[in-house]
């Protein structure tokens, strides 16, 4: 039996997955369901995508159409809809953030494990303030206005507080391409501080950092992604695909999740061990320190 979702993002995800499964179980297309409910097609699409909430009245109408009549299941879905309509800590910032990124932030907070692959920059939750200040405008398609830049940093550090502090956060397994260590943002002093911060994080009992070296003998064209695992069996794993130049999105279809798990496992097998990786990162930090001294 599933536990109650703690936040609106997970509740919204459970609800939209359940509605999609119920509609498909009733052998209805989105177009046909919209016609029978006398809704616009876009409304059905947005509800199933989780980009809008659903009222109790609309939910009851959907469940009746999809032949979902079990009282316990109806009660569960109505409860999810109520939680999904609640505001969370991210609500004041959502208008400034991409929709998929907002959804991902809500999911990661309830994850039991996060598996990062990052070929471009240090993962956001591991960035120092100085590194984040340097990297945000460099990785955005256009330099964001100052207000958005400040909000991006504020959200990033709230995520760090939620995920890295305390003993009940998720297990974090991160693979960094070696190019991340070479790519300089903000100068040698900022890079040294950032890499020493990584070494500190890597010594945490629930954080594993590994470097995929240039000579690892593996080629990947994959961009940055995160695989999320959840503690409740009601919540299928998810994948967040990050992009600075196109649309980021969250995958929850089984085939997409399996593919990215396989990619992560392949990269993991080719990466340096956590201990060797921390030594390697510390070596780069020392090199940046030498540059400062010159």
TrEMBL record:
It comes from the Bacteria. One of its GO terms (molecular function) is DNA binding. Residues 19-74 form the HTH cro/C1-type domain. This is HTH cro/C1-type domain-containing protein. It holds the Pfam family HTH_31.
């Amino acid at each position: 039996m599933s536990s109650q979702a703690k936040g609106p993002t997970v509740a919204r995800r459970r609800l939209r997955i359940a509605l999609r499964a119920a509609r498909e179980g009733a052998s209805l297309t989105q177009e046909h369901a919209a016609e029978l409910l006398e809704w616009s097609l876009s409304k059905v699409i947005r509800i199933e995508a989780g980009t809008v909430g659903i009222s109790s009245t609309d939910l009851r109408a959907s469940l009746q159409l999809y032949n979902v009549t079990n009282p316990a299941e109806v009660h569960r879905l109505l409860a999810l809809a109520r939680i999904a309509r609640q505001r969370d800590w991210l609500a004041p910032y959502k208008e400034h953030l991409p929709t998929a990124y907002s959804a991902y932030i809500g999911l990661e907070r309830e994850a039991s494990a996060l598996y990062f692959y990052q070929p471009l920059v240090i993962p956001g939750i591991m960035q120092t303030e100085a590194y984040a200040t340097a990297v945000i405008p460099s990785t955005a398609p256009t330099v964001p206005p100052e207000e958005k830049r400040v909000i991006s940093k504020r959200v990033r550090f709230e995520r760090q507080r939620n995920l890295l502090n305390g003993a009940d956060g998720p297990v974090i397994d991160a693979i960094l391409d070696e190019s991340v260590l070479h790519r300089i943002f903000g100068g040698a002093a900022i890079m040294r501080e950032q890499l020493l911060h990584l070494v500190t994080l890597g010594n945490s009992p629930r954080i594993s950092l590994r470097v995929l070296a240039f000579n690892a003998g593996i080629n990947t064209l994959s961009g940055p992604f995160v695989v999320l695992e959840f503690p409740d069996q009601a919540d299928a794993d998810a994948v967040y695909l990050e992009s600075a130049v196109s649309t980021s999105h969250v995958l929850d279809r089984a085939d997409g999740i399996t593919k990215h798990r396989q990619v992560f496992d392949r990269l993991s097998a080719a990466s340096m061990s956590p201990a060797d990786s921390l030594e390697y990162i510390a070596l780069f930090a020392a090199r940046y320190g030498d540059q400062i001294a010159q």
